């Protein structure tokens, strides 16, 4: 038996004495009567329902809420209904700072419900609103980890709110067709968490009672939900048919093939396509698409890269959002076996997708995802077929799973790439978890030229770790990791290759209790070391002790000292500064400060002072946001980075200024205008984006988008001479969804 096999076998043996604690599911009453869906919560139906008992999550866990909340759940044959009377002693304390769709910033009073529809303690959907009636939904994976909250996911549901001198009120109407669930006969069991955020007190109340030791997103952790049962008969299976049309004007300046001058290119694109969504069963969905539109309606934020590695940009296109938790296969950090942004984008430019299909949901004990898409062949790019199969199922206990994924990328030019992976997450006992990831890739361009003189596995990834998931007391995560030199998932993303090492994150959280103004504080410690596979040389070594603190009013502060060693085995640029290859060791001092986002003026301040490779670095970044009213938000970001290399003969230095200003005006919850302007002095690029969105109902959208990118400042000495602007685009897009019920 190999060493890896022994390790995996031992870990599974350790899970045998797993302890599981549960409570009796709450039987939800079916609606008896009618509800006038107006946000007033005054019908007899609501009055006859039992209330969910809310308790304080933060700042004083387990105590009686400062304000009374009456939360009720019922259902009929078509909808899950949620009602809430969110009472207050002083109505002037109700904070309303946004009407924005998918406003994830806790800048207002908030009420929400999280539904673990498969009751798998890992994945869920969140439906949230504010006193303005804003619609906020998210898909949750990874048991509510920060990287597992996908706010770009949208679905069909409605919410209405009202308010008076006693408080504010919520009625939510969520179609069962928007919830993927798996009934046992006529009984469906789901996990539920209800939450209310009272912003002027920075207080979170929840049902069930949730210990804050599980972190600031504990109210979004499916593993902490309470079970509910409903007698749901067979639901209707809708077909959503969403045609779109898009057109506009696009002016670009491009470098000619010889890169000697810029050539102007004017275009008036006009396009149309169709998406179809069909609920095959209550827990299985089929998406079909013909000529999908993946034009960006939001510009990617510019980023200043201060590292040796490529930058990661998340997926924002709507087609890939629903069911994305099933297709998630995160290997380590930003490295992942499947990253949908590779489909339809090549070197940052759109590639026409002829069509495709996705099937995702649950079959028996298995979560299943299947995807296949085909891109167009052009004179510049080959046509490519992308395929993904993902399967995952629970094992041992209700908090553990084992899964796998296979991906393919095959081009008309003869290039092919295949990859597979296995992953698992096992709750051993209490808050103790074991997790592992492994994958292997096969690429004919690499395989044909691959030489393995050192006989080391060059195309695999392996990662195994142990974690204690909590925020108070002693917590930790440790792992072993290995990334082969030629790990190349054709439909994925790899930030680092050819490295192996260990990682440890250890801390201790002190929660002083009800009498203290401090909610949490304590030491943190990170140790991370990575060596190169090819020569065992040091690539990355970090020793990072620090301290964190959070007050009950929402103020946060961190301070740490970071000792870092880097072995750069190639020269790399940071704008005009070249960092020569070699071994480096340096120390920095870092701080962050932020206040509650519900304040009228909120901020986040970051600073770094210390060494940087063979020089020094001084960095400061401030991000203020002004919540002017429920209709208007204004934000900004300014970052200054001063690099100095006094020991070099050339005395190199570089000042990087990056600033952006953004504003959002919301006429109501359906119509909004946003504007974004960003400038970076090193590239002298000014990027602007203005977007009008009219969203009268889910699936019906009108966008009018203006994008502009231009060079600012003098072009003296620049060859070829850049144009006055690089890109100027005005686009109009309209999507309308028709619903058929079978």
Q: How far do the termini sit from each other?
A: 54 Å
Average pLDDT score? 85
Helix content: under 10%
How much beta, percentage-wise? over 45%
Number of helices: 4
Structural category is: mainly beta
Basic shape? globular
- Which residues form runs of ≥5 with pLDDT under 50? 1-22, 296-300, 449-455
Major beta sheet, specifics? 24 strands, antiparallel, barrel
Describe the structure.
- Residues 1-22, 296-300 and 449-455 have low confidence and may be disordered.
- The chain is built from four helices and 45 strands.
- The chain has a 24-stranded antiparallel barrel. Strands 1, 2, 5, 6, 7, 8, 11, 12 and 13 form a nine-stranded mixed sheet that branches.
- Strand 34 and strand 35 form a beta hairpin.
- With 742 residues, the chain is mainly beta.
- The longest helix has 12 residues, at 3-14.
